[in-house]
Amino acid sequence: MSKQTDNKQFWQRWASCYGPLMQSSEPLYAAIAQQMQPHLTPEMNVLELACGSGQLSFRLSRLVRDWEATDFSPKMIAQAKLKPRGAGLHFSVQDAISLPYADETFDAVLIANALHIMPRPEKALAEIYRVLKPGGMLFAPTFVHGTARAARLRVRLMSLAGFHVFHRWSAVEFVDYLNAHGFRVAEQCLMGSAVAPLCFVRAVPQN
Questions:
Q1: Which of 8, 30, 46, 102 is most solvent-facing, going by the fewest CB within 10 Å?
Q2: 149 in helix, strand or coil?
Q3: Alpha carbon distances (Å) from 24 to 49, 126, 196
Q4: In terms of Cα–Cα distance, which of 112, 109, 107, 79 is closest to 93?
C-alpha cells in the first residue's frame, strides 16, 4: 500500500522523532496503562498491534508472561529495539490485517490509537478475533472525533503533514463499530482532552 492508503510512509519518515514527540502524551499513556493493569495477570500472553516505538509495551509487558509487540513500520520497530527490555517483551514487524499467529493464541490483544487511521479496520478486527482465545480481551483505546474547533484544526494539520485519518468516529460511533464487527464492549471511558479525546474500550469477542 502507498502512503495515501495506509500512512505507512508517514510512520517510516517520522519513526526516529516519534518517541521524543510523544513525551507530551506521557500522562495519557499512563492513564491507558492504569486502566488496563487490573485486567493483566502474570500467566497471560498478550499481542500488541501498532505498538509504535513501545510507549505502552515497556509500561505493561512486565505484568504478563509474554508480550508480542508488533508494528507494520520497520523503522518504528527498530527504534523500539534500541531500548533495554525484559525477556518477555518481543518486537517484530507484522501487518495487523494479516497476522502469522495461529487461531486462539493470545489472552488479550491491544491496539492503541490505530483503528481510526486504518482504511479497513474491520480486517484488523477479524484477525484480532481469530487470534484471541475464547474469553480473551481486546483493548482498543482510540482517538475519537472532537467537536471543538481546535480538534478539527488538529486533524487538518495532520493531513497537511501527510497523515490521513480515515474514520472520524464519535465515542458512540466507535463503540457501535466494534459491536458490529464481532466484539461486545464491556468497558468504556473517555480520556484525553477536548482537542484530542480518546475513547478507552475493553471488549470481548461475541459468541
A1: 102
A2: helix
A3: 22, 33, 13
A4: 79
